[in-house]
Specification:
440 residues, alpha/beta, Aspartate Aminotransferase, domain 2, seven-stranded mixed beta sheet, three-stranded antiparallel beta sheet, 40% helix, globular
Length: 440
């Protein structure tokens, strides 16, 4: 029997930090729920894990590979891709991914986080500048912090043109930020194209579900940086599989394939797999192979992971996912109608519940509330899985319960979610026992 040891000084510091976070209702915990619950939380928007045809295609592919290469690795890859982890299968998959998204080349990474960190940490050169949407993902921040870029400057979320907002506190518009750079100390080098300006955005932002104005962003960058040194990078994590023909993404939907410097497509969301790929030119691909530390110093993805990506791309290319996307759009529209109606009926104060009146284009609906944990717990107790999102994941004052819709959600489940939200609102408005009478 081991004897208990005295808590170290470091552990006391760590415990105090955790206690402080708990006091601010910001403590994170790992949780799981029974499979019988209704999923309104995961990012598996197309519910591909429930498609029998995909499951069978995946198993068949693994069986074929096992029989054709009985001594080859099945559960592991053997090392990093630069050592023993590269395979013809991985290279063929990269070519398939690039062709599907109308890109010159692609390079696989083990996750979207790895892809963003690898890309942003090594591609910007000394003297270059990264301009990023203020709500860009944490992985991009981690990549930027280790880059050699001279400056990292945020611009106001999804705001391209200057329309008086630049006089307010906080980041200015994209136009204002780039204009200030051109007029600043590095202006001459930027105008002559000696220093690059990278513009980092997401296709769909995961917390609000809103979509980047990619056409306006491209026009702004092209106009202000005519030397061709403006390079747009789009993280398509939450748009892969959902937007564009057969789910090719927002860049393809807007026909900007030749205008965007790089795209990051991740497979752990609507694709129902894991891993990610950077879409870029062959030169950038080779540069990443030589300098992206998150690729060089990590074990390559094993065959089961690669196989899941391949069968999912085969499924998208067949057009069979189109029906799932159409059903998902109907589910999103109905859910928004019901949730917005609650705010209208009860005239809810914004601090209690607010839903954006615009019909969402993505499967993400933010229920803004000052009591996100209370609302989420209330729904979870009724078998409806939603998650509270609090600061620092979102800005203070923008706490919410995030609702993610899926192709497999039924209208009955959506109605049950709306009923639970309305019951919660009714309870908090009356501070009385929740009535059993149906109010939808």
């Amino acid at each position: 029997m081991t004897q208990s040891r005295e808590t170290s000084g470091l552990e006391k510091v760590l415990a105090a930090r955790l206690a402080d976070r708990q006091a601010r209702s910001q403590l994170r915990r790992l949780t799981s729920f029974p499979s019988s619950t209704a999923d309104f939380s995961s990012n598996s928007y197309l519910s591909l894990q429930l498609v029998p045809e995909l499951r069978q295609a995946y198993i068949s592919l693994l069986e074929r590979h096992a029989s054709s290469s009985p001594t080859g690795p099945l559960f592991g890859s053997g090392g990093s891709r630069l050592l023993d982890g590269n395979t013809p299968f991985a290279e063929s998959l990269e070519a398939q991914i690039a062709a599907f998204h109308h890109a010159p080349a692609s390079l696989l990474f083990n996750s979207g986080f790895d892809a963003n960190v690898g890309l942003f940490s090594c591609v910007p050169q000394p003297g270059d500048i990264i301009v990023y949407d203020e709500l860009i993902h944490a992985s991009v921040h981690d990549g930027m912090r280790t880059s050699r870029a001279a400056q990292r400057i945020p611009f106001r979320h999804n705001t391209v043109m200057s329309r008086g907002c630049d006089k307010d506190q906080g980041p200015g518009s994209l136009e204002r930020v780039i204009t200030d750079l051109i007029q600043g100390e590095r202006g001459e080098a930027i105008k002559r194209g000696r220093n690059a300006v990278f513009v980092a955005v997401e296709g769909v932002y995961s917390m609000d579900g809103d979509i980047a104005p990619l056409e306006q962003i491209n026009s702004c960058v092209t106009r202000l940086l005519p030397a061709g040194n403006g390079h747009i990078i789009v993280d398509e994590a939450h748009s892969t599989g959902l937007f564009g023909d057969q789910g090719r993404g927002l860049v393809c939907e807007y026909g900007l394939e030749d205008s965007v410097f790089a795209r990051v497509h991740t497979f752990g969301k609507a694709m129902g797999a894991s891993g990610a790929a950077v879409l870029c030119t062959p030169v950038v691909r080779e540069y990443l192979i030589n300098y992206a530390r998150t690729l060089i110093y990590t074990t390559a993805m094993p065959l089961p992971g690669l196989a899941s990506i391949k069968v999912t791309y085969d499924f998208l290319a067949s057009g069979k996912a189109d029906v799932l996307r159409a059903n998902l759009r109907n589910i999103v529209t109905r859910a928004h109608e019901l949730l917005l109606a609650i705010c209208t009926r009860h005239k809810t104060a914004p601090e209690l519940l607010h839903v954006d009146p615009d019909v969402p284009r993505s499967p993400i609906i933010a229920l803004l509330t000052g009591q996100p944990r209370s609302l989420a717990t209330y729904c979870q107790q009724r078998g409806l899985i939603v998650r509270p999102i609090v600061a620092p994941t979102v800005p203070k004052g923008r706490e919410r319960v995030r609702v993610c819709l899926h192709a497999a959600n039924s209208l009955a489940q959506v109605t049950a979610l709306a009923q639970a939200v309305e019951d919660w609102v009714w309870h908090h408005k009356t501070a009385e026992t929740i009535p059993t009478k149906t109010r939808l």
